[in-house]
Amino acid sequence: MEQATLLRRGTDDLRLNEEEIRLLAQIASGVTADVAARKLELSARTLRRRLRTICDRLEVNTPIEAVVWAARRQLI
Hints:
mainly alpha, 5 helices
């Protein structure tokens, strides 16, 4: 029983919010981080920090891997 709870909690941690999905969609469109930041009204530094947070949560190494993760789940 305890193990199932841990698994469920782990799955919930992988959910992305709308803003994170929009961020990954911008990266998937092929624009640079600076352009994506401007479109999302963020600083480039904030965008890079959020990308790193997303990558860490999804346990991937690069933003492109995060984009692939989201695309495979039809989020973008």
